Amino acid sequence: MSFIRFFFRVIGLLSLLAVGLFIAFAFYAWLSKPKKDWILKFWSACLMFITGVRLEQEGEPLHNQAVMLVANHVSWIDIFIINAQRATSFVAKAEIRSWPVVGWLVHQVGTIFIVRGHRQAAVEINKKMAELFEQGVAVGLFPEGTTSEGFSLLPIKYGLLEGALRARVPIQPVCLIFKYKGERSGHVAFVGEQTLVANIWILLSSRDVSVTVRFLPPVTQAGVEPTEGRNIIGARVEAAISAELARG
Predict the structure, then answer these.
(1) pLDDT of residue 95
(2) pLDDT at 74
(3) Is 114 helix (H, G, I), strand (E, B) or coil?
(4) Per residue in 110-143, pLDDT tens?
(5) How far apart are CA 89 and CA 136, in angstroms?
(6) What are the CA-CA distances from residue 120 to residues 125, 144, 203, 209 (Å)?
(7) Closest CA to 176 of 91, 59, 93, 26
(8) Positive or negative: CA dihedral 213, 217, 219, 224
(9) Alpha helices in 135-229, H assignment, sequence order
(10) pTM, two decimal places
C-alpha cells in the first residue's frame, strides 16, 4: 500500500512541477504582484494536497503589507507550507538552488539564496530584503540555519533580523508543529545525513501527516523605530516560538 501511495503521489507531484515550470517559463514574470501571490499560494496548497500533508492554520499572517515571517525549520516543505498561507519570498541556503527543478522554481518566485561562510552574505541579503520590503513583500526566514525534528528550537542567528528592523517592518514569529498519525513526530523531518530522495520517499509513502501553522503576534510594529537591538528582539522571537513548540 505504501508503494502504491508513493507511486500515485509521485505522478501528481511531477504533474504539478510540470505546470509550475510552464507557468514560470510562459508568463509568471509579467504578472502583477497580486496575481503572482495568488498563483504561489494556490500552487503551494496543491503541493500540500498531493503530498498528503494536511494543514491546520492558527492565527493569521499579516496581509497586504511587508512583513518578516520567522519560523522554526523541520523540512524542505516548510517553504510551501507557509506559502500556502501567504505568498512569501524566503531566505534559503544556496544549496537549494542546485536542486533539480525545485531549485529553479523557488528561484523564479523570489527566493533569496545565502552562501554560508561568505563575509558579505548578510550585507547582500539585507540589501535584497530591503528592496522586497519596499514592494510590500513578505520575507520568510528560518533563523536556526538548519532543520530539526521539530520538538524544540535550535539556537537561532539574529543577524538577518537587521533588514526588517532597518526597514521598520513587523517581525512575526511562526511555529510549525508536525504530527504523524495524530501525535507529535519527527517522522517526515529532513534531518541528519538523510538524502532528499529518501525524505521524499518517507513523505509520499506516509499517511496521516499534518502540520499546524501557528502565526503568533508580531514582536515589532510597522513604521515604528525599534528601541531594542536585534539580539533582544531575536530573543523574543526565540522565546515565542519555543513556548509554542513546548505547548504543542
Answers:
(1) 75
(2) 97
(3) strand
(4) 788 877 666 666 777 888 888 899 999 999 999 9
(5) 11
(6) 9, 19, 36, 39
(7) 59
(8) positive
(9) 162-167, 196-205
(10) 0.92
Torsion, CA 72, CA 78, CA 83, CA 85, rounded to 10 = -70
Which amino acid belongs to residue 163? Answer: G
Residue with cell 496581509: 63
Alpha carbons 70 and 50: distance in angstroms, whole number:
26
Sign for the CA dihedral angle at 190, 99, 158, 139 comes to negative
CA–CA gap between residue 146 and residue 33 (Å, rounded): 30
Backbone angles phi, psi at 168, to 5 degrees: 55, 45
Residue with cell 517559463: 25
pLDDT tens digits, 157-215 = 888 898 899 999 999 999 999 999 999 999 999 998 899 899 999 999 999 999 999 99
Cell of 163: 533588514
User: Quick one: cell of 148?
Assistant: 530539526
Name the residue with cell 519555543: 242
Cα 248 to the chain's mean position, in Å? 19
Torsions phi, psi of 171, nearest 5? Answer: -110, 115
| Side chain identity at residue 128, one-letter code | K
Cα distance between residue 122 and residue 129, in whole Å: 10
Alpha carbon distance 9, 195 (integer Å): 19
* pLDDT tier at 87, thresholds 50, 70, 90: very high
CA 164 to chain centre: 17
